[in-house]
Amino acid sequence: MESLNNLMYGFGIALEPMNIAYVFFGVFAGTIIGMLPGLGPISALALMIPITFAMEPSSGLILMAGVYYGAIFGGSTSSILLNAPGVAGTVATSFDGYPMAKQGMAGKALAIAAYASFIGGTVSIVFLMLVAPLLGKVAVSFGPAEYFSLMVLGLTAVVSLSDKSLVKGLIAAVLGVMISIMGIDLQTGTERYTFGSAHLLDGIDFLVVALGIFALAEVFYILLRGGGGKEAPRNAIGSLKLSRSEVSQIAPPIARSSVLGFFTGVLPGAGATIGSFLGYSMEKRLAKDGHTFGKGNIKGVAAPEAANNAACTGSFVPLLTLGVPGSGTTAVLLGALLIMGVSPGPMMLENRPDVFWGVIASMYIGNIFLLVLNLPLIPLIAKILDMPKPMLLSLILIFCMVGVYGMSFSIFDLLLLLGFGLLGLGMRLFGFPTAPLILGLILGAIMEESMRRALQISGGDWSTFIDKPISMWLLIIAALSLLLPLAKRGLTKMRSPAAS
Amino acid sequence: MTRFNTNQWLALIIAVFAAAYLWMAWQIPSFPLPRPVDSDLFPKVLGFTLLALAALLFLERPAEVVSGDEEADAAAQAAREDTARSLLLSPWSRVVVTSLAIVAYALLLVPFGFVLASTLLGFGLSWYFGYRRHAINLVVSLGVVLTLYLTLTRAMGVYLPTGLLPF
Asked: Where is the chain membrane-spanning (chain A) (predicted)?
């Protein structure tokens, strides 16, 4: 009952005319940005920060949530139409979506993606509403030691679940933490790694790193791979309508994947990518016609789409209740919130109920907009993919510049942006994942603060991190999250010579 | 002499960086009052962690970096063919020229003003990247820049330099 009252309060905020306009704009902008190959929700959210930083936090987050949903859906559009997933979370969609498009059923695949995203998102919002306050109550009892361990777990989980090298992921995470502690140490007033430059006293702005590492590096990467290359001819979109038998075929996979996706999203580090792959493989195993997966089976589009949207909502649980982002995307969201002056965490529910419930209510509205907006606009939206790449690249560059300069008014930051763009390019070329860097950047300063506070309370005794049961278990899980993939890899290696 | 693989080269660079980072951590002045944890502890932990990770990277066999994007690979191939035609249009030259354009933009933003500098950057880079419909290019670049300028300055009250133009 209390949740329902709170939700009504949230709707009161989300249904304010300006906020509806923001959701609408967010979903639309997110869909378009997410559709552009290479630009996923992280870039979309980073590009939105300069727009939201002057807004009311609830409105800003409402817009961001819309962008997030839109970008995930937009990613599936490019997955289906071009076989070029803008985001890792929509890779699984392309397995059956693109074959459907090649058979002239792109419209149907996009419609299924829209319906599945809508249902996946809506089901998981109900779960979020129920789970988040409960988890928030537990989290209130967390002290600095528990927080530190939780953040270590957040970092290791993201690193261990990335498909790239574990060591490189950890290096990226450490680099992120190193960047986060540059500037004046707020606890002692000591300068660290400023190289005597006044520009670095406040540290490096999160936006500079995020836009550089993601958006600018992506532009460089496209250029390096021959940007502006000839576009492949598109197939006809076809009808958007679904028959009754098709609806009954996709309903159970959508329901199952929505629940699975939500719980995958809640786990730190898992998120939309793992959720969508799990949803896809679960349905492939359960389906009688599992052998047709990968050849244009409609269930192969419905399951990952429901799961990835549900996982997106699920990933808001650790962000809103613990203040710890479970993925690169929610890390960017956290950065945006901090810029707006809101610190998510267990106290947010009490201190800023307008933000918390406003966001949950706006997710419902965002989901409805996603469906209402995207279905009729699908053929039109698909045309944006025909925009000449040279122009697209230069416009992304301008957005990055405006984003950084509009916020810091610093020429130095523009040059830093270029530096991070080149660093992001290097990381991409040498197989370093970038999400851990951004997560390290976001968590680094809070992590250090928690560690120092815990050590101050314990009088410098490091065993405080293992004396407290919650902290100890979090650290054990963190260690396991790193060791298990290594052990699994070792076992596979041992088995493979035997098999051959 | 054994030749290093990519990971080993990267590991060496990262190790040098970690060593420099650690050296700087030791230069951080200590707080006048005794505290259980000072400003230098966390950087030292980070420096040693990075050093250990560099050692692990040195021992790791490099995996092949796959792009997973056939279309991009085809485009890359086409671009490599272009390289033979013009050095200025080779993929790496594009990255270098774009970087230089960003530096020039940063330096000219205040004297030229936001609208002029951004339009020049947008138009110029689109042209350099291969877009040849100049009228459309100019209209789109100017349109987007003006929209951004008006939104930021009028709607959000953010100051952007006017430079040579009166507004």
From this structure: 20-39, 110-132, 138-159, 166-184, 204-224, 259-280, 324-343, 355-379, 391-417, 429-447, 470-487
Within a domain: residue A495?
Answer: no
What residues are paired with A325 via a beta bridge? none
Kindly state the helix (H) or strand (E) to which residue A189 belongs, with its residue range: none
**Residue A274: which domain range?**
2-486
* Chain A hits for B126, Cβ within 8 Å: 388, 390-391, 393-394
**Residue B118 domain-assigned (yes or no):** yes
With respect to residue B120, please indicate whether it lies within any of the assigned structural domains. yes
CA B97 – CA A323 distance, rounded (Å): 41
Distance CA A483, CA A219 (A): 35
Q: Are residues B133 and B89 in the same domain?
A: yes
- The nearest CA of chain B is from the CA of A13 a distance in Å of 21
Give A395 to chain B, closest Cα distance, Å.
6
Residue of B nearest to A461 (CA): B36
Q: How far apart are CA A95 and CA A277, in angstroms?
A: 10
Contact flag A456-B37 (C-beta cutoff 8 Å): yes
Query: If you compute the radius of gyration of chain A from its CA atoms, what whole number of angstroms results?
Result: 22
List the single best residue of B53, B61, B80, B116 to mutate versus A (max A Cβ within 10 A): B53
On whether the CB atoms of residues A212 and A441 are closer than 8 A, the answer is no
User: What is the extent of the structural domain holding B108?
Assistant: 84-155
Q: How many domains does chain B have?
A: 2
What's the predicted TM-score (pTM) here?
A: 0.75
* Residue B90 and residue B149 in one domain: yes
Number of domains in chain A: 1
Task: List C-alpha distances in Å: A367 to A319, A360, B97.
Answer: 20, 11, 42
> Could you list the pLDDT tens digit for every one of the 500 residues in chain A?
666 777 788 888 888 888 888 888 888 888 888 776 556 787 788 888 878 877 888 888 888 888 888 888 887 887 787 666 656 677 788 888 888 887 888 888 888 998 898 899 888 888 888 887 777 777 777 788 988 888 888 788 777 766 678 899 999 999 999 999 999 888 888 889 998 888 888 889 887 888 888 788 888 988 888 764 444 445 566 777 888 888 889 999 999 999 988 888 887 666 677 788 788 888 888 888 878 888 889 999 999 999 988 988 888 888 888 887 877 788 888 888 888 877 787 777 777 777 778 778 878 888 888 888 777 777 776 666 667 888 888 888 888 888 788 778 899 999 999 999 999 999 989 989 887 888 788 788 888 988 988 998 888 888 999 998 889 998 998 898 888 877 777 777 777 665 54
- Shared domain for B115 and B148, answered yes or no, is yes
Look up residue A453 and give its two tokens: 């506070």
Q: Is residue B74 situated within a structural domain? A: no
Interchain CB distance below 8 Å, A390 and B158: no
